[in-house]
Input
Amino acid sequence: MLDLFSHQFIQYAFLAGTIIAVICAVVGYFVVLRAQAFAAESLACVGFTGATGAAVFGVSSFVGTFLFTALIALGFGLSGKRLKGRDIDIGLLLSFALGLGVLFLKLYTTNATEAVGILFGSILSVTTQDLYLSFITGIIALSILAFTYRPLLFASIDPEVAEARGVPVQLLGVVFMVLVGLTIAEAILVVGVLLVFALLVAPAATAQHITNRPLTAILASIALGLLFTWGGMLLGLFFHVPVSFFIAALAALSYLVAVPLYHLVSPHLYVQETHDMKEL
Output
C-alpha cells in the first residue's frame, strides 16, 4: 500500500483532496449555519450545466462552471433573507438546470468520459494545472472568509440584529454565495458534482452536532473532511472501488452516528436553552 504513494498521480490526488476538503469544510460551516444547504446543492447541479455547456461551446470546463455558478449564486445572494423558505423556487431552478445540462450532454457527444468525470469526479487523474488551480482558489476563498469572518458569523446567527448594528448583511450574503459558487466550481473538476455536497455539508453538519463553538466547529469540520477524503481514497485504492463511493459513505455514516449520539449525550439541551431564554 505504501508503494502507491511513490506514484505522482496518487500524490496529486491526496494534495488536491486535502485542499478541497479544507475549503469545503470551512465554507460548508457557514452554508449549514445559514441553512443554505439546498441552495448549495442546486449550485452544484448548476455547475454540471455550466461544465457541459462549456464543453459544447469549446470553453474551459472551469470557466463555464464558475461563470454559471457565479451567476446563479449572485441571484441567490441578492435574494437575501428571501432565500430561506424558497425551496420551491430553488427546486424549479434545479430541475431546469439539470434539464439544460442533459441537453448540453446530448449535444456534446465527442467525449463521454469527460462528462462522466464532471458527474463523478476524477480525483485520481488530477493534473498539475488542477492542483495549482485548487491551491489558488483555496487561498482566495480562505482569505475572503478570514477577512469577513466576524461580520459573516454575526449576520449568519442573527441577521436582524446584525443589520441594526450596521453590518452589511445583504452585501455579505452576495459575497458569500459567490464564494460558495467559486468553491463548488473548483471542487467539481476534482471530486465531481455528486460528491461536492458530501464534502460541503456533511463535515460541517456533523461538526455542529459535536460542538456549538464556531471556531471549534470549523476545526472539527476540517478534521472530518480530511478524514472522509483520505479514508475514502485509501479504501478506494485498497478495494479497487470508486473513491467517491467511500467518501460519500463515510460522510453519510458519520452524520447518521453523530445525530443520535448528540441527542443521547445532551438530552436536556433544548430544555435548558428554553429555560435560560425565559429567564432573560
Confidence is low (pLDDT under 50) at residues 269-280. The CA atoms of residues 233 and 243 lie 5 Å apart. The radius of gyration is 19 Å.
